[in-house]
Specification:
The complex is a heterodimer. Chain A is mainly α. Helix content of chain A is 73%, strand content 0%. Chain A has 13 helices and no strands. Chain A starts with a helix and ends in a 10-residue tail after the last helix. The relative contact order of chain A is 0.13. By secondary structure, chain B is α/β, with parallel strands linked by helices. Chain B is built from 26 helices and ten strands. The longest helix of chain B has 33 residues. Chain B is elongated. Classes of the chains: A mainly alpha, B alpha/beta. At the A-B interface, helix 1, helix 2, helix 3, helix 4 and helix 5 of A face helix 1, helix 3, helix 4, helix 5 and helix 6 of B.
Chain lengths: 273, 674
């Protein structure tokens, strides 16, 4: 009876997820292995992939750098929030989450207004008598865009972990003669490792596949793999090559989460933001 | 230590909120430029509430968010209960499945779903419009479900199973015990899951971008197409209002939660007061009412007697009523009250081709350029027109009839014609340098040059400069062009299409090749801009013509639309806004004088003689050029690429297989050491 019930309740869900997540991935594989004009089987799309190795490399590089910057910026913030009184915590948590609910397209566009050669930052610099800087169109601008957009994805899981660290552990370490640096490196940091790992994944995955940030903030040299994929579907008219590229992207993320699983705890469900 | 941490946190919050402050400030700006505050005004808000289309889009987004959240919450909660009572092994497998959309990049989820819908809808069922409201809804439910499950599961695990047993002992059926006991225990999880799903769904751009068709578009997707052009500040006004709304909602949510927490800490758990109960009931009823009204509104819109005519045109390529021009679409709808025009845009011929060839759309009228028409005719993508329904065709000037792209004039009716030249900013560019196409290769202006982001126009410029035929199929010549473009790449600030407007008007770039009419529009907004056609070289002379694609559903209405556009008065009024040459006899009489006499729009005969049109290219050459251009875009030189495309696929396949194996190995559960 009980077994029937659980199957009855979860069955439709499993079916839905199979049809709308697993099977579509199979369709991507099918497109990746067929020719765009004739529809017959081909290795051609996969062969063309080697053309995009540098693009893939720079995408991975940019997103890793932004994930690390997010970690460095996000950790102190998460730590600070976690050590406030509960009400302040709630307010600050909300303030971190709020930008995530607003259109990321428009927020990125605001950065264009800030960074442009006649933009707000350069106007400000000129006012101080400093000559204009070349800000937009550089890899730095793309990384800035990624850090800005995905910083909350780092802060929230970090906060969720740090807030759970038992204060008595820290006190015990202090009692046993640890310096503040030692307390941090021996107690707090190891305990916040799951948060760090999930934060890095949560920043890395969207950053490596983004296609808007680099279009707006990047120059000719900062085309990312997401841009190439979008282009294949939306303007170059070659969805098959786009599917092959998505396959690679999927694999990359698969490995990335695999590594995180390896080193992280195997708590069921993980941390959800 | 603590103080530095506090200052640091404050700085980070400033970093997070500065761009939003810029947008909010932009909503009170009289000018269009975010970086230049010209004066304070509330006009953008007035404009916003006058714009029914924009509010309609917001309505669409809300409808999708509400429906998908409601479905996913109900569906997900029951599923979570089911999953919870599965055996651990099964449970783990199902949770892995749940995690797929969470860990997969959005772009992959979007692409995979759109390919599935097109594959099933267009490929297997033969549907014309396989990307529609329902596919969008399915996609949103699919990515919302995991949020609900992952929020409800922990609550189920925390729940004491004895509670349910007790309820059953007291005579409850399993179903009754669920509604009497379980649901109350897991409610916080359900609510936070629903809220998360709602915000994700409301703000989702990437997945929606790939699974929407033309008939039902959400706000973020439309904003994406807006942000390619100089965006109207009323969008910032909308942003500001949404910001306030979400802010208030979040504060309210937090206050409620705090109150709940307080009550829980008080030992005596008070039952909800009577007022609270009524409030809850009213809230529930209101939710249901909103849902029902939403669904009815949807049914009402789909059951209209009106015909919906889907028109797809270039960006900024029809008079829309701004700047005292005629609103052509409104005028057409007035003339034909039973037709409702659904208007969408594309930025390049290639984008239009991609949209149509990927399938899943219904489009009734398109306005591609010459060479694309030739390509579409050769691929059977256009329907022959019934000229009995287009009597105004007689108004078309003979020069624009029977063109090479459509020799028998069966498929197309000219809409505009124009030239491709260079637009530059006289404030920064030395007049002495302005001679020919080589201005785009001038080292002096490194980083200030924009270039076409479509292969045909980019290669066209290289071909004109090197003196090749624009319709060449000689691969060696195309290679030489690719090399020239690769040499230009370090000087180029960005490859653009519609973005050229903002870049040039705001003087963030100085030189760009573009279409004459668009150049004219930019010149109206910035007096330093000039346009010229190279003195001794050839340049592109193009015709954009109206066609009916084979995916059309309302052919007769489409022909009415085409006929309407051939009216001299309408065409003239249209040209007042889009600033191109009209192929319609007598249209110039209805245009503003300075436009009708402008040499940018109507260059003198002796210059026009140097114009050349793009013609048809065979498919393998089109693909070859497209790949060369992609190589330039990602920074590979032409020679390297040639070697690669003749290489074997084996290394790539092996690498991929190796990576996959590594991934599987890494994902295997860790063996516990004893």
């Amino acid at each position: 009876m009980k077994k029937n019930k659980s199957l009855l309740l979860s069955g439709p869900y499993v079916l839905w997820m199979l049809v709308f997540t697993l099977i579509p991935l199979g369709v991507v594989g099918y497109y990746a292995l067929t020719d765009p004009s004739t529809g017959v089987f081909t290795w051609g799309n996969l062969r063309d992939l080697s053309l995009f190795l540098p693009t893939l490399g720079s995408s991975v590089w940019y997103s890793l750098v932004s994930a690390l910057i997010c970690l460095v910026l996000g950790y102190p913030v998460a730590y600070y929030i976690a050590h406030r009184p509960p009400v302040t915590q709630k307010i600050l948590y909300m303030l971190v989450m709020l930008p995530m609910c607003m259109s990321f397209l428009l927020r990125t566009l605001a950065w264009v207004g800030l960074l442009e050669s006649n933009g707000i930052i350069n106007q400000f610099l000129n006012l101080l008598g400093i000559p204009s800087l070349e800000l937009i169109g550089t890899p730095g601008a793309v990384i800035l865009g990624m850090v800005y957009n995905y910083l909350p994805y780092m802060v929230l899981p970090l906060y969720a972990i740090i807030v759970k660290i038992d204060n008595r552990l820290i006190e015990a370490a202090e009692d046993l003669g640890c310096t503040p640096v030692q307390v941090f490196s021996k107690v707090v940091l190891p305990l916040s490792m799951p948060g760090i790992l999930s934060g890095i994944t949560m920043v890395f995955v969207p950053a490596v596949s983004t296609f808007y940030i680099s279009q707006k903030l990047g120059g000719t040299d900062t085309m990312l793999i997401g841009d190439v994929i979008e282009r294949q579907f939306k303007s170059a008219g070659n969805p098959n090559l786009g599917a092959a590229l998505s396959l690679v992207l999927m694999l990359l993320v698969f490995i990335c989460t695999g590594i995180m699983n390896r080193f992280g705890s195997d708590e069921e469900g993980g941390v959800v933001v | 230590m603590k103080r530095t941490n506090r200052i640091f946190t404050i700085l980070i919050f400033i970093f997070l909120y500065i761009p939003m402050a810029v947008l909010i400030l932009g909503s009170f700006n009289t000018g269009k430029n975010l970086a230049l505050f010209e004066g304070f005004t509330f006009n953008q808000y007035k404009e916003l509430f006058r714009d029914k289309d924009l509010l309609g889009l917001l309505g669409n987004s809300l409808l999708i968010a509400i429906l998908s959240t409601a479905t996913a919450t109900a569906f997900g909660t029951f599923a979570a209960v089911g999953i919870h009572s599965l055996k651990p092994k099964m449970r783990k497998a199902v949770m892995t499945l749940t995690n797929i959309p969470m860990t997969n990049p959005d772009i992959v989820t979007g692409i995979s779903l759109s390919l599935l819908f097109v594959f099933i809808g267009s490929g297997m069922l033969g549907q014309k419009q396989s990307l529609n409201f329902w596919t969008l809804l399915i996609a949103h439910i699919t990515f919302n479900l995991p949020y609900v499950i992952l929020n409800v599961m922990p609550k189920l695990q925390q729940m004491d199973p004895a509670l349910q047993d007790a309820a059953m002992d007291l005579g409850c059926t399993p179903l009754r015990s669920f509604f009497k006991v379980t649901i109350h225990e897991i409610m916080p999880g359900v609510i936070s899951g629903a809220i998360m799903a709602f915000t994700m769904s409301l703000d989702d751009f990437v997945i929606s971008y790939f699974v929407t068709g033309t008939e039902f578009v959400t706000l973020p997707v439309k904003i994406y197409s807006f942000t390619k052009k100089p965006i109207h500040p009323k969008i910032y006004a909308m942003f500001t209002l949404l910001f306030l709304l979400i802010f208030v909602l979040m504060v309210a949510m937090n206050l409620l939660q705090l109150r709940g927490d307080k009550r829980r800490t008080q030992k005596q758990a008070k039952p909800p007061s009577r007022g609270m109960r009524t409030f809850q009931r009213v809230a529930a009823i209101a939710c249901v009412a909103v849902l029902l009204i939403g669904s009815f509104a949807l049914i009402a819109t789909t059951r209209q007697d009106k015909i919906t005519l889907n028109v797809m045109n270039w960006g900024q390529n029809i008079a829309d009523g701004s700047d005292d021009t005629l609103d052509i679409i409104a005028a057409f709808e007035e003339a034909y009250p039973n037709i409702d025009v659904n208007y969408a845009e594309y930025a390049s011929n290639e984008e239009l081709y991609s949209k149509l060839s990927t399938g899943g759309l219904v489009v009734d009228v398109i306005i591609p350029s010459d060479y694309m028409i030739a390509r579409m005719i050769s691929e059977d993508m256009l329907l022959p027109l019934n000229f009995d329904n287009i009597p105004n065709y007689q108004n078309v000037i003979d020069t624009y009839k029977d063109q090479a792209y459509d020799p028998e004039n069966k498929y197309s009716v000219p809409y505009t014609w124009g030239t491709v030249g260079i637009i530059y900013n006289a404030k920064y560019v030395d007049e002495a340098d302005v001679t020919g196409w080589d201005l785009l290769w001038n080292e002096k202006y490194k980083g200030q040059i924009l270039m076409f982001d479509n292969s045909r126009d980019a290669f066209g410029i290289a071909q004109y400069m090197l003196g090749y035929d624009v319709n060449t199929t000689d691969k060696a010549e195309l290679q030489a062009c690719a090399q020239a473009l690769a040499k230009q790449r370090p000087l180029v600030q960005q490859y653009v299409m519609d973005q050229v407007y903002a870049k040039m008007e705001e003087e963030n770039a100085w030189i760009a090749p573009y279409y004459a009419g668009d150049a004219m529009m930019m010149m109206e907004n910035n007096e330093n801009l000039r346009f010229y056609l190279p003195e001794n070289e050839t340049f592109n002379l193009f015709i954009d013509a109206m066609c009916i694609p084979s995916c059309a559903q309302e052919k007769e209405a489409a022909e009415k639309f085409i006929n309407f556009m051939c009216d001299p008065e309408i065409s003239g009024a249209n040209m007042d806004y889009i600033c191109y040459g009209s192929p319609i006899e007598g249209a110039t009489e209805h245009m503003e004088e300075y436009l009708a006499e402008s040499e940018v729009i109507y260059p003198p005969e002796e210059i026009l003689e140097r114009g050349q049109s793009y013609g048809f290219l065979p498919e393998d050459i089109t693909r070859y050029v497209e790949n060369l251009f992609l190589g330039i875009r990602v920074g590979k030189t032409a020679e390297e690429e040639e070697v690669q495309s003749s290489g074997s696929a084996l290394p790539v396949v092996l690498t991929l297989a190796g990576l996959a194996a590594a991934g599987v190995f890494l994902c295997l559960p860790k063996r516990k050491r004893k």
